[in-house]
Amino acid sequence: MNDMTRFDREGEARAILARNDRGGYTVPTDRLYPFQWNWDSAFVAMGFALFDPDRAYRELERLAEGQWDDGMIPHIVFHAPSDTYFPGPEVWGTRHRIATSGITQPPVFGMALRHVHEAAVKAGLPGADERTRVLFQAALRSHRWWLRARDPEGLGLVAILHPWESGSDNSPAWDVALARVPATTTTVIRRKDTGHVDASMRPRDEDYQRFIHLVDTYRDCGWDPQRQWASAPFKIADVQMTAILARATADLMHLAETFGTSEERSELADMHQRLTEGLARRWRLELSRFVSLDLISGEDVEAPTQACFMPLVALHLDDAQRGAVTTEIERWRQGMVVGLPTTPAFSPAFEPKRYWRGPVWAVVNWLLADGLRMNGAEDLACQIERGTVQAIERAGFCEYFDPTTGEGLGGDSFSWTAAAYMVLRRRSGAPATGAGAT
Ligand code: DGY
User: Fold this and answer.
1) Which of 2, 134, 142, 412 has its CA 20 to 30 Å from the CA of residue 283?
2) Spatial distance between the Cα atoms of 409 and 360, rounded to a whole number of angstroms
């Protein structure tokens, strides 16, 4: 790939963000996802930070418009109507001043805020401190919500009550727990996603019946966190979510040195300690990975998925853990054209084209490479970043990629893939060591 082609791709990435702009917020892609999504926007803000920090703040500010009074930042903010998506605001039936969904998504927000703030200061953007100060408070309120609503028993792990909250909707990690959720719904299901993307790349109808059963259940609780907690038929203390929250907490601790009070600094330090200790207890040496906990059955979630490595973004592993994790990640990459698969090929659940059951996602690689680098595995981090950049250069800015062929799948002109391209291309600048495109 010569430098000119790389330059063109960078222009294309920016053009995608411009095209998906709906007025200060970015839709993940046209039609398939026509609203503002929580963690998509956080990644997109980090992409904007590279060339337009003002627009990066706007992305986070528009997301924060959807924040509930109790602190939750919802997974979708329905700023403007669209009939190309199901389930729309009428199914969620929430009562916030702007229409939103009633569940949340990984809190990348705090990570993004630090990133955007640092870029804005470097660029000398006027008013940056004031904007950061306001968003810092929004992030802090959302972290408090997480601990209060989703770790009421003080495990040091936060729970998801819906697979959509994880962002990894149909991951094999949820198979056992989701099978216990009834497939009956009071809402009539009218899927739109399979009109935009081939059904073989999307969750199955049966998954959707259970997803909507959960929405019906929580809507019947009036979206009250305590009632939801008490009646949830799906409740998983998720290592990926906890790791992202812990890492975002560390980023807020950094910002709190400038923008927080001394009480807020010690509150964040306590939060961080609670989450990192909780995560550390989920390590399983015999599996070479971390495992989530099914709070209904009390069982470990042993299905191998990318979530099992996500604690790297928050923890400093010891030598034995680091060696085990890097060897395991290398094993998952073996024989793949693009790594890292979100489910490894040796798993019986592996489906290389079906959404979160195997495909490679650029933002997952972004986080994992960040965690590997933080843990001293610079070479492996660079290889993963470089492989992601090359996959995008070959197949385009797709939603996800088949790890066995490199084919681009799902929606196209995808905002977070464009952001990931710009960020990972810069980070993988160091010469790659080791072989292969993965
Ligand atoms: C979807 O509709 O596919 C989303 O992942 C839910 O947030």
Assistant:
1) 142
2) 10
169 is catalytic: yes
Closest of 265, 297, 388, 272 to residue 338, by C-alpha: 388
Token pair 């495992």: residue: 291
Cis upstream peptide for 140 (omega within 30°): no
Burial profile 213-241: b = 16 or more Cβ within 10 angstroms, e = fewer? bbbebbbebebebeebbeebebbbbbbbb
Please choose, from the candidates 68, 133, 128, the residue with its C-alpha nearest in 3D space to the C-alpha of residue 102.
68
Contact 59, 25 (CB under 8 A): yes
Residues with CB under 6 A from ligand 1: 75, 164, 169, 193
Tell me the pairing of strands 292-294 and 236-237: antiparallel
148: how many CB neighbours lie within 10 A of its CB? 13
Under 8 Å between Cβ of 84 and 192: yes
Question: How far is 120 from 99, CA to CA, in rounded Å?
Answer: 30
Band (5; pLDDT cuts 50, 70, 90): low
Amino acid at 128: A
**429 — pLDDT class (breaks 50, 70, 90):** confident
Q: Residue 6 — very low, low, confident or very high, per pLDDT cuts 50/70/90?
A: low
If one residue of 27, 32, 33 were mutated to test the ligand 1 pocket, choosing by the most ligand atoms within 8 A of its CB, it would be 33
Residue with tokens 């028993």, as numbered in its chain: 153
SS3 318: coil
DSSP secondary structure, 84-151, as one string: SSSS-HHHH---SSS-B-SSB---THHHHHHHHHHHHHHHT-TTHHHHHHHHHHHHHHHHHHHHHHH-
What does the DSSP 8-state code read for residue 51?
Answer: T
What pTM does this model have?
Answer: 0.96
- Decide if 351 is catalytic: no
Phi-psi region of 154 (alpha: psi -120 to 50; beta: other; left: phi over 0): left
Residue whose CB lies within 8 A of the most ligand 1 atoms, among 75, 85, 169, 191, for a mutation test: 169
Q: For residues 11-25, give the mean pLDDT.
A: 97
Contact assessment for residue 41 and residue 74, using Cβ atoms and an 8 Å cutoff? no
In terms of DSSP bridges, do strands 159-160 and 236-237 run parallel, antiparallel, or are they unpaired?
A: antiparallel
Confidence at residue 211, expressed as pLDDT on a 0 to 100 scale: 98
Query: Residues 6 or more apart from 261 whose CB is under 8 A from it?
Result: none
